[in-house]
Amino acid sequence: MTRLLRYTLPGLLIVVGLIGVMIYSLTWRPAAREVLPVSCASKAPNLAPGQALKVMTWNVQYLAGKRYVFWNDLASGTDDTPTHEDMAFSLDEVARVIRDEQPDVVLLQELDDGAKASDYQNQLKLLQERLADLYPCSVHAFDWKADFVPDPHIFGSVGRQLATLSRYQIEHAQRLQLPVARANLISRQFQPKNAVLVAYLPLSDGGQLAVLNTHLDRATQPDDTLQAQVTAVAKTLDKLEGRGTPWLIGGDFNLLPLGQYQRLPSEQRTPYSADSALHVLWDKYPMIPTNNEASGIDRARWLTHYPNDPGLNGPDRTVDYLFYSPRIKRVEAMVRQDDTLRISDHLPVIARFLLPATP
Predict the structure, then answer these.
(1) What is 31-354's CATH number?
(2) pLDDT value at residue 223
(3) Which letter does DSSP use for residue 158 in this model?
(4) I need a labelling partner for 318 at 20 to 30 A (CA). Which of 42, 77, 272, 358 fits?
(5) Whether 34 contacts 174, CB under 8 Å
């Protein structure tokens, strides 16, 4: 037995070591804070204090469209990948809506780059080719990346990004890592690494506007991950507010507003909690839509999520939001629903603001 252990133990250690090296080489370990390159195709203008600013946030669901029930949508979902035709349709439709709205800043979530499920497309590049005349500046950051994920439904590469497009100059940008879901040491390496993409837009008076873009964890069961991520976002916003830097943040928060949990059928409530972690933000900062809008008499106008579920015939919840500094004034806001229901499982949230004037 001693001789057997003498020969097998080193072999086992070598195998474990090789597996560790392989996992390390296939996966991605982002830094807690990373400075990002900014792309500006031409000299873009600076923002001016007191000016109006139109902003759109939209999770475009890696251009997959609405004709599928994916394996991660429902337990009964069987679809793994969209067709080229559906992705091309969604790409054209996303570009059409953005051109029609012409927001000054666009915050996009779930754009793929190098992912097997979307045939290794660089979807941000494809979209920029259609919008180059509108948005000279952009910055992007991965929130899920691996050369190979062994899940049978993926069994290949993933690459999913946040992207911010701007008519105005972006001075610098950074990626802030958010807390990740608890998991064992191996599976943790392959799971999403949710983050905040922060772009700083200079103002003509020497100040700056911080524009933040995020996509929080998509929980399948209630846990403390979303609470930790919202708390981390709140700390970032508090720092900006404390420095006197006006800011706004948009994205897919995967959390419900006040009052919607009770309105969902019991089978739809599983990922959520009756006490939404989002209260950490709405207790301190203005939100679009407000809780009154999202759960009031006209709440249907503010629904932003239309899950890929054959049992639904339209959006049924709000999970996408814009929050903003009290220094900024809301002018108008809406969720564009009429012609966007077949593009993505999320709908674009659009708002117009007035930036603070020079004191």
Answers:
(1) 3.60.10.10
(2) 77
(3) E
(4) 77
(5) yes
Distances in whole angstroms, Cα of residue 114 to Cα of each of 11, 123, 197, 237, 297: 35, 9, 19, 32, 43
Q: How far, in Å, CA of 221 to CA of 173, rounded?
A: 33
Residue 189 to residue 187: CA distance in whole angstroms: 5
What backbone phi and psi angles, to 5 degrees, belong to 160? Answer: -125, 140
Concatenated DSSP letters for 263-316?
GS-GGG-TT--SS-TTHHHHTTS-EES-HHHHHSTTGGGG--B--S-TT-SS--
82-118: pLDDT as tens digits: 999 999 999 999 999 999 999 999 999 999 999 999 9
Can you give the residue ranges of every domain in the chain? Answer: 1-30, 31-354
> Nearest to residue 74, comparing CAs of 307, 263, 273?
307
* Crossing angle of the two packed helices 84-101 and 123-131, in degrees rounded to 10: 40
pLDDT over threshold 90, residue 129: yes
Closest CA to 163 of 243, 43, 60: 60
Fill in the amino acid letter for 9. L
DSSP string, 235-253: HHHHHHHHTT--EEEEEE-
Q: In angstroms, rounded to a whole number, what is the distance separating the alpha carbons of residues 34 and 271?
A: 30
Q: Cα separation of 64 and 334, whole Å? A: 24
Nearest to 128 by CA among 91, 101, 97, 155: 91
CB 333 within 8 A of CB 322: yes
CA nearest neighbour of 219 among 188, 189, 187, 192: 192
Q: Is the pLDDT of residue 167 over 60?
A: yes
Contacts of 3 (CB under 8 A, 6+ apart): none
Across the strands, what pairs with 109?
59, 162
- To the nearest whole number, what is the mean pLDDT of the chain? 91
